[in-house]
Fold:
Amino acid sequence: MTVKDPGVQTPPPKDEEKDSGPKRPVDVSHIPEPVPREELRTIAGNVSPYKVLGRTYRVIKDPSNYKARGVASWYGKKFHGRKTSNGELYNMYGMTAAHKTLPIPSYVKVTNLKNKKSVVVRVNDRGPFHGDRIIDLTYTAAKKLGYQKGGTAEVLVEYIDPKQYQAGKKAASAPAASGEPKAPAPVHSAGYALPANTFLQLGAFSKAASAKALQAKVVKMTSRDVLVVAPEKEQSLFKVRVGPFVDNLELSLFREKLIKANFPTPHIIYP
Structure:
């Protein structure tokens, strides 16, 4: 499920470590479901077609009518802290999911067909690539659906259009606390956490003056540091970078701001 580069899907790790949840049961009732919102979709996580374990997959161009019934699994400690397919950090206490073909990011409603419990999750990863499973949820999402002990459940997965969801959203009753120790809640249950060395690179120039001119324009648009990185060797360039970013929502909003202001589309780097 995890990838080394956020723009390219690769097979899940082949190590033999068995996946699991926390050492003892924890209460997840205080962890909120993500609120579906319109997000910029980039190449990160959306390479199409892509191949895993000898099989080719294609990302769905228009998921608006997506509805599928099948088996849901969940993933936990084995992947906790690793990069997801769009470069975010997987948190088993968040409310996210891995899906083979839905665009990243997407929001879906997942219903356990046995007990009729439902949750909303944000798709930010690729998988599951084993058997007939159609979606992989976090430990928290699986526990909210009541199948974390059994490992899998028959579910219905339905795509959520953020525009329609926001317009028709109704207040939901809070789930009851279980009496177990509380799970550590992520800053964003939608899974926006990024590695600490995540930067946006806005351009590369042969002349320092050109790089500094771009720096002067961009510094007025953000509270993040705007850096001019000097060449490390001959024939390399002066690079303009913004960051570091630790939240992909902030990064995406800033990238959209740059694009609307007619700046060249920046790309993510991990220097």
